[in-house]
C-alpha cells in the first residue's frame, strides 16, 4: 500500500477550511498539496471575501508545500480574462478538474502511484469517466474525522461547527474510499 499525494480539485474543502480558519491542518498530513489552477482562481478571485484572502495567504505562505497545478483549461481561461476581464467563465472549474485528472495527473505522480482527491462536492464522486484506478477519494468531513481519530486535530466537531457558524453549509457526506488493492491500495493517514 502506498502513501498518497494530496490533490484538491474542488473549491469546497478550501472554502470550508478557509472559513473555519483551519487550512493549516492540511499541512499536518505531511503530504505535498496540489490545487487545480482554475479552482484556485475561483476561490481567490474576489479579494473582498475573507476566505479568499485566507486561501491566498495559505498558498503563498507555503510555496514549498502548496502547488498550484496548471491545466490547459486554466491557462485558456486566464488568457481569456486578460483579453476580456468581464467574460463569463462558468463551469470552468469542473472542466479544469477533468483536464487535470485526464491529462495532468501523471505530471505529479507516477502512473500507478495513488493520489488523494479531497472534495466536498458530491458531483466529483460521479466523475467515474475520469477517475482513475489509483485515486483515493476523501470528503472534507471524512478528513476531519480521520484527523481527529489520529490525534492530529483536537476536535472534528469544533472545526465543523466553525465552518457552519461561518454561514457555509458544507456537504456532510463521509467518503474515505481507498484506491483498489489491485492498484496497490492507498492510505493518507
Fold and architecture overview:
- It is a single chain.
- This protein is an alpha/beta fold.
- The protein has one domain (about 1-185): Rossmann fold (3-Layer(aba) Sandwich).
- It contains 7 helices and 8 strands, in the order ββαβααβααββααββ.
- The strands form 2 sheets. The protein has a 6-stranded mixed sheet with strand order 4-3-2-5-6-7.
- The chain starts with a strand and ends with a strand.
- The mean pLDDT is about 85.
Oligomer: single chain
Roughly what is the average pLDDT, rounded to an integer? 85
Largest sheet: 6 strands, mixed
* Computed CA radius of gyration, to the nearest angstrom: 16 Å
Q: How many individual domains? A: 1
Low-confidence stretches: none
Strand order of the largest sheet: 4-3-2-5-6-7
CATH class: Alpha Beta
Order of helix and strand elements from N to C terminus: EEHEHHEHHEEHHEE
Please report the distance between the alpha carbons of the first and last residues.
Answer: 12 Å
Shape: globular
Helix content: 25-40%
Short characterization:
The chain has 189 residues and is α/β, with parallel strands linked by helices. 40% of the residues lie in helices and 15% in strands.
What are the key terms here?
40% helix; globular; six-stranded mixed β-sheet; 189 residues
Task: Spell out the blueprint of helices and strands.
Blueprint: E1 2-3, E2 5-8, H1 11-19, E3 33-36, H2 37-44, H3 50-61, E4 66-69, H4 72-83, H5 92-104, E5 115-119, E6 135-139, H6 140-150, H7 156-165, E7 176-177, E8 186-187
Parallel strand pairs: 1-8, 2-3, 2-5, 3-4, 5-6
Antiparallel strand pairs: 6-7
Helix pairs in contact: 1-3, 1-7, 2-5, 4-5, 6-7
Amino acid at each position: 500500500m502506498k502513501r498518497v499525494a494530496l490533490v484538491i480539485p474542488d473549491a469546497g474543502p478550501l472554502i470550508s477550511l478557509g472559513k473555519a480558519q483551519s487550512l493549516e491542518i492540511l499541512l499536518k498530513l505531511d503530504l505535498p498539496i496540489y490545487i487545480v489552477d482554475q479552482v484556485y482562481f475561483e476561490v481567490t478571485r474576489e479579494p473582498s471575501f475573507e476566505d479568499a484572502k485566507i486561501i491566498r495567504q495559505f498558498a503563498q505562505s507555503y510555496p514549498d508545500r502548496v502547488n498550484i497545478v496548471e491545466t490547459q483549461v486554466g491557462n485558456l481561461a486566464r488568457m481569456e480574462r486578460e483579453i476580456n476581464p468581464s467574460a463569463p467563465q462558468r463551469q470552468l472549474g469542473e472542466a479544469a478538474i477533468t483536464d487535470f485528472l485526464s491529462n495532468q495527473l501523471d505530471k505529479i505522480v507516477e502512473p500507478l502511484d495513488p493520489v488523494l482527491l479531497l472534495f466536498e462536492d458530491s458531483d466529483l464522486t460521479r466523475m467515474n469517466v475520469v477517475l482513475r484506478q489509483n485515486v483515493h477519494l476523501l470528503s472534507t468531513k471524512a478528513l476531519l474525522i480521520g484527523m481527529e481519530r489520529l490525534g492530529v486535530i483536537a476536535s472534528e466537531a469544533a472545526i465543523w461547527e466553525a465552518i457552519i457558524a461561518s454561514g457555509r453549509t458544507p456537504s456532510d457526506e463521509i467518503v474515505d474510499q481507498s484506491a483498489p488493492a489491485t492498484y496497490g491500495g492507498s492510505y493518507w493517514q
